Amino acid sequence: MTATTAAPSPRSGAARRAQHRRRRALAAGFSMMEVLVSILVTATGLLGFAKLQAAALSNTQTARVRSLIALQASSLSAAMIANRRFWASAAAPASVSVRGGVVSGAGMTLSSVPDCHAGGCTPEQLAAYDMQAWADTLKAQFPSHIASVACAVAAPQPPHCTIDIRWSEKTIAINRSTSLAPADMVGMQQYNLYVEP
User: Fold this and answer.
1) Domain boundaries of the chain, sorted by first residue
2) Which residues contact 138 (CB under 8 A, 6 or more apart)?
3) How far apart are CA 59 and CA 36, in angstroms?
4) pLDDT tens across the length of the chain (197 residues)
């Protein structure tokens, strides 16, 4: 058996070294196209993150307003339950409306509402005081609100009232259909609370 030996390379040592240097130079860094593509991908991700952040802030504001509306309705319902002698009687008005801090309704004498913190108020005066204080708080927190209280005191059902609050709420565009709408999209929202004083 004879051993075969590999044939010598036709290239010289200098040609191989030059080819090796060219390969190393090409693999040594990033090309301009790679850098531009990575900047484009990063910028797209940052824009998406900014849109997500704006939506999160808007949703937080919306949740805050809705929570405050629910607390205001609960506040009035607690005052109604505390003054059961008026709200569960036939003297309770069928409807009361509140707009811009002004309370209007049949049976509610609001022209001379006494300060009932000191005591000495009749149930009707206390109800008028509570309604005016509630209307003032709503006006301070939600200038564009519209509220109403509708009560029904008829046998055989127990006396009950419904507190209805409406307010305007701004939203942001979250998809293509909402982005084509006017820039200051405002929607009317509604919150209802059923109360049995």
Assistant:
1) 32-195
2) 72, 98, 101, 145, 147, 165
3) 35
4) 555 555 555 556 777 888 877 777 666 667 888 889 999 999 999 999 998 998 888 889 889 999 999 999 999 999 999 999 999 888 888 899 999 888 888 666 555 577 887 778 888 889 889 999 999 999 999 888 899 999 998 777 889 999 999 998 877 666 666 555 555 567 889 999 999 98
Residues 136, 129: Cα–Cα separation, whole Å:
11
Structure-token match 């006494």, residue found: 114
| Residues 159, 124 contacting (CB under 8 angstroms) | no
User: Amino acid identity of 167?
Assistant: W
Inter-axis angle of helices 32-82 and 123-141, to 10 degrees? 170
Strands 146-152 and 102-105: unpaired
Q: Distances from the Cα of 76 to the Cαs of 55, 119, 131, 152, in angstroms? A: 32, 19, 8, 17
